[in-house]
From TrEMBL, chain A:
GO biological process: one example: RNA processing
Subcellular location: Nucleus, Nucleolus
Gene3D superfamilies (UniProt xref): 2.40.50.100, Nucleic acid-binding proteins (2.40.50.140)
GO cellular component term, pick one: nucleolus
Pfam families named in the record: EXOSC1
Upper classification of the organism: Eukaryota, Rhodophyta, Bangiophyceae, Galdieriales, Galdieriaceae
Primary location class: nucleus
Keywords, ordered alphabetically: Cytoplasm, Exosome
Protein's recorded name: Exosome complex component CSL4
From TrEMBL, chain B:
Family note: Belongs to the RNase PH family.
Tree of life domain: Eukaryota
Gene3D superfamilies on file: GHMP Kinase, N-terminal domain
Localization per record: Cytoplasm; Nucleus
Identification of the protein by name: Exosome complex component MTR3, animal type
Pfam families in alphabetical order: RNase_PH (PF01138), RNase_PH_C (PF03725)
Keyword Cytoplasm part of the UniProt annotation: yes
InterPro entries hit by this protein: ExoRNase_PH_dom1, ExoRNase_PH_dom2, ExoRNase_PH_dom2_sf, PNPase/RNase_PH_dom_sf, Ribosomal_Su5_D2-typ_SF, RNase_PH
Boundaries of every Exoribonuclease phosphorolytic domain copy: 33-169, 173-229
Gene Ontology molecular-function annotations: RNA binding
GO cellular component: cytoplasmic exosome (RNase complex); nuclear exosome (RNase complex); nucleolus
The UniProt record lists the keyword Disulfide bond: no
Entry keywords, A to Z: Cytoplasm, Exosome, Nucleus, RNA-binding, rRNA processing
Automatic annotation (TrEMBL), chain C:
InterPro entries per record: ExoRNase_PH_dom1, ExoRNase_PH_dom2, ExoRNase_PH_dom2_sf, Exosome_comp_Rrp42_subfam, PNPase/RNase_PH_dom_sf, Ribosomal_Su5_D2-typ_SF
UniProt entry keywords in alphabetical sequence: Cytoplasm, Exosome
Major subcellular site: cytoplasm
Pfam families: RNase_PH (PF01138), RNase_PH_C (PF03725)
Source organism superkingdom: Eukaryota
A molecular function (GO) term: mRNA 3'-UTR AU-rich region binding
UniProt keyword Mitochondrion present: no
Cellular-component GO terms for this entry: cytoplasmic exosome (RNase complex); nuclear exosome (RNase complex); nucleolus
Name of the featured protein: Ribosomal RNA-processing protein 42
Domain annotation Exoribonuclease phosphorolytic: ranges: 29-164, 198-240
Keyword Plastid: no
Family membership noted in the UniProt record: Belongs to the RNase PH family.
GO biological process, one term: U4 snRNA 3'-end processing
Amino acid sequence: MQHSTNRATAMFAVPGMELSEQGNFSIGTGCYCLHQRVYASLWGRVSFQETGEANSLRIDIQPRTRSQRSTCVPTVGDEVIGKVLKVTWRAVVVEIFAIQEKLLCYTFRGVVRLPDVATTSSDKIDLHNCFRPGDIIRAQVVSLGDPQAYYLSTSRSCDGVIYAMSSADPNQRI
Amino acid sequence: MERRISQRYGPFFEPIHSLEREYQRTRPNNAPRSLVLNTGTVVDAAGSGYVELGKTKVIVAVQGPRPPIRIRGGVENTMNGRITCEVVKSSFCYYSYESTRMANVGRGVSEEERLLSTRLVRVFEPIVILDKYPKCSIDLYVVILEDDGSAFAAMTLATSLALADASIEIISVVSSVTVAISTKQEYLVDPDRTESECAVGLITVSLPLHAAQLCEIQHTGKLSIQVWLSAVQLAVEVAQTIGNSMCQFLLQEMEKNETPSLCS
Amino acid sequence: MYAVSKAEKAYLLDTIETGTRLDGRQLFEYRPISLQVGVLPSASGSSRLRLGETEVLVGVKVEVGDVVESSNDNVQLLFTVECSGSASADFLGREAESWSSELQNALESAYRAANVFDDERLSLVPGKFCWLFKVDILVLDTGGNMMDAISMATRTALSTTLVPRVHIVQSEGSFELEIDDNPDACDTLKVEKAPTFLTFSLIGNHFVLDPSIQEETCARGKLSVAVDANGDICHVYSFGLLDAVELSRLLTIIKKTGKVLLNRLDECVKNGESS
C-alpha cells in the first residue's frame, strides 16, 4: 500500500504503511527497514527531521497516546524513576514506574547493586542508611539484567533519592 | 474449524441438508459482510479493538508489554519477548443448548478455545517486533461475543487494531478473511455460520499490508490444488481491500484526535 | 531447546542459497526412512518409523464405542500425541499440552477431511455403535520434522491394523455384538485415502522439505500440508511470513512428492522391507 509523502505537512502512519520510496531516509523510532524501504511500525504521527548529511531525513513516529500512561519498556541508558521496595546489605530492590518522567502502564522490577550505588568506596556504604523502603529514587538502567529485574545504577550526580517520607524536602544526592 | 464444530455440536433442530436448501445468500459471492471497527473500547487495557463482521462480534484487549505473569520454559526463553493469548467464547454465543453443555462453558478453557489461542499467537508472533520488548510478555485477551461465521478472521482484525492502539511495534496491521467452498463449487467470501457448516472446505487467510507475504493459512476440508489456489488468491484480494479499509479507519481516527498529546 | 550459534546459522543460510543442505540433500529430498510394523503385540496395529533422527512409535487399539450424536462417521478416530521425556525436555509439562493438541487437531482434521474410513463394511449399527480407533502416538526422539514422521507412521500403523469381525444380533430392539474369537477372523483396513503431511521450512528465501532439527531452529517460517494419494489438500498448517508466489510453485512439488511418498510407503508395508 503506497502513500505519497509530502515532506512539508504532517502525516499520519499506520503500521505497515510505506513511508518512503527513495532510499535517503534514516530510521528513527517507530519504523523499520525492509528491502531498502522504510515502513511504519506504530500508529501515530510521522515527523521528518533533517540530519547533518545532505538529502537525508530521519523518520520518527510519535505514537498516538490515548491515556496518560505509556507502554514503554526500559532499555539500556534510560533514566528511570522508581520506588524502593526492599533494602538488603548488598542491593536495593526498586519498582520502576516511570521512564524519563513518563508514567508507565505497568511497573517493572529493578535492582541497584552495591557496586553501582556510588562511584567511590562501595564497601564503606551502608545501604540501610542511604535508602529506605518507600523512597522514590532516580536511577539509570545499565543492563537488562536477569529475568527477575533490570540492573540500575545511581552513580550519576543527579541520581539517588529524590523524595522521602520523613522529610518532605527532596534530597538530590546521597 | 467451523466444519469440525458442526460435526460435533451440530444443529439439533435443523439437519444440514435442509439448511442448505432454504438458505439464500443475499450479497454477491465475493463481497464480505459489513465491517464495523473500533478502538479504545476497553479503558483499562493498554490497547483494545472491537470488530463486527456482519453479526460476528469480537473484542480484544491487549495488556503489555509487561513483566510476565507466569514464567514458562527454560531460563533461555525468559530473556525474549513473548506473546500469550486467552480466548473466551462468551456463554451466549453458542446457538444451541447442547453445544453449550458440550463445550464446558464455565468449567475452564475448552479445547476449541485453546486451539484458537495457539493459532492467534502463531499469526502474530512474526508480526510483533518482539526484539524491542525483551523479558516482557504481551498478553492478548479475546472475547468472542457472537459467532456467526469467520470468527477467527474477526479475531485477527481486532487484535491488529488492539496492538496498534497499544502502541506496540508491529510489522504491519494484519487483515484476514475466510473463503468457503460450497458444495456447488462456488467461492463464498466471508461466510456466515450456515454457509460455513454446509461448506466442503474453508480457508482463512491472514496477511500483512505488503501483501506479497502471507501470515497464516488455515484450511479445513478436502480440496484439489487448483481449487485451493484459486480460493487463496481470491482471499488475498479481498483481504487487501479489508486491509485498506482498516488503514483508512485508523487514519481517520488519528485526524479526529488531532489534539496535542497528553504525554510529552 | 536446540541451540544454534550465529556462525552456524549463517553457514546454514549460505549453503541453502547454493541449493544443497548441510547433510548433502537437495532442497526437496527426504531423509532416509526406516519402518517396522507390528512392533506392539498387544495393539491391533502398530508401527515404528525412523525419519533421519526422528523416531516415532504408533499403536492403534480397536474398540467398539457409542456413536457421538450428530456425527455421520462410521468410525471414530481418537488421536493422542505424546513426547517421551528422553526425547526432549521442551515437551514436558504445560507447554506440551498446546503442542500435542495442535498436532492432534491437525491429524483429526486431515483424516476427517479425507474421509478415510468411508467403507460401508465398517459400519456396525448406525446411530448406536461404531468402531473407535484409538491411535496413540509416542515420539521417541526429536530430530526435526515430527509432523511428517507422525503422519507416515500413523498411516502405516492403520494399514496393518486388524479389525476383528463382528456379528450383530438384534433381539427385541436391542443390539448385541459378538466378536469373533478366532484370531484369524480379522479384516485389514483400507487406508488408500489416508493423507500424509509434508513439512517445509522457510530458511532465508527458500523452502526446504523435511527439515532437520538445525534447519528448524534457523527457520523463519513453516508450512505443513496434508495431501492424499490424489494430490488433494486435506489440512494446512502455517507459521511465519510466507511468500505468496513461492506457495503456488510449492504446490506442484507437494502433489508430486506426496504421491511418490505414499506409493513407497505402501510398497514397503506390502513387501515387508525397510526403505
